[in-house]
Amino acid sequence: MEDIHYASGEDVDPILLVELLDEHDADIVEQLNQQDIETAAAILSQFPLERAVEIFDRPELARAGDLILDLPDDFAGHILKGMSADRAANVLRQLDGPDRTSLLARVDFETAQSLKLLLAYPEGTAGSIMTTEFVSVPATYTVAETLKHIRDVEHTRETVYAIYVLDPITRELLQVVSLRQLVMSDPNSGIMDVASDRDPVWVDPDADREEVARLISIHDLLAVPVLNARHRVLGIVTVDDVIDAILAESTEDVQRFGGVEGMAEPYMEISFSEMIQKRAGWLCALFIGEMLTASAMQHYSDELERAVVLTLFIPLIMSSGGNSGSQATSLLIRALALGQLRLRDWWRVAVREIPTGITLGAILGVIGMGRIALWQTLGIFNYGEHWKLVALTVGTGLVGIVTFGSLAGSMLPFLLKRLGFDPASASAPFVATLVDVTGLMIYFSVATLILRGTLL
What we know:
Blueprint: H1 14-21, H2 25-33, H3 37-45, H4 49-56, H5 64-69, H6 73-82, H7 85-93, H8 97-104, H9 109-119, H10 126-129, E1 135-138, H11 143-153, E2 162-166, E3 173-178, H12 179-183, H13 209-219, E4 223-227, E5 233-238, H14 239-257, H15 272-299, H16 301-306, H17 314-337, H18 346-378, H19 387-418, H20 428-451
Parallel strand pairs: 1-2
Antiparallel strand pairs: 2-3, 4-5
Helix pairs in contact: 4-6, 7-9, 13-14, 15-20, 17-19, 17-20, 18-19, 19-20
């Protein structure tokens, strides 16, 4: 790659520039992320082209789309062409239509077509994170010819650890050979002679990136090919791309699980208006849901007036049900994401969670009853002459509420996935709100049965 750079309208301290160029790429990215767009672009415009490409190829570089737009046109085009195809497509996705078209006009036709192909796939699919820079050879090649081909194209390929053997006529994928297999084989052997007998692992371009991650993990691969309907290789998804994609997915899942819409930007870069927009919707929905809790308490207002002591344990009852539901939800979301469970397994989970909820509820019930007995015996608080029945009400209520919380929290991810939603949308606050309303109904129903003729 040419060692060229472009002048910028903003002066850059030469000493700072020299110091930056001596640092590791990750350290440079960290410093650039702390600068405003204009300053960061001015610094990058003074970098040699090859080094600038390496910086833009780092997925942790924030605002890469805005940065490349702020660079001189020719320099931006050279960078886009030099970047790995999947990373370049990811940068283009950060831009709106006109800016994206403007950038694509700065590269050659072949590069532009390759990037447009990647941009056509929905975000989050194998096609959207694959790279078209891979090593392939016809099945007629020998080991020596393949090694020579790798040396010739190495600088233009993202990885050379897997070589894809294609039918010389149809270009269909026949086999995958590792670089280690090549190095350890007789140079005069045919490439197909050193290939494994197992069929190659591959994915469709529309496969979810989590499915790609699962295949790479269970088969211990460095890359997985993406094939079209004719079994031709469109590109490959490398393990580092999967890690980046799953980290982004995990960040969004954690945010949703906390009751916030997914946000890709770092916390300090999120605008005030976007922060309100992403958080207000969930808060309003949860607030409306909690209004049902108030309605439930109003329904049992007569019981509360006659047995005020029951109100002391409402926070305890509600939090226990919500906590058990959140536990079950978090376990099930993870299991579904890793492919450990399928939709058809819902009944197995239900059968497992019911006894689990009963046992957990019984443990908490015993603790709650013990606490009431201890406080009553030591004279810390007087629960009245029917304190034993109050303790029994609390203990029995906890068994019912924790069991319901566990069952509801485990079934909600299945329901959301069945309806086509992300199971991570089953946020902890949402589960807690659901269990709060039902928990009150269970608690007062138990109280009515146990305390009838005494406090009620």
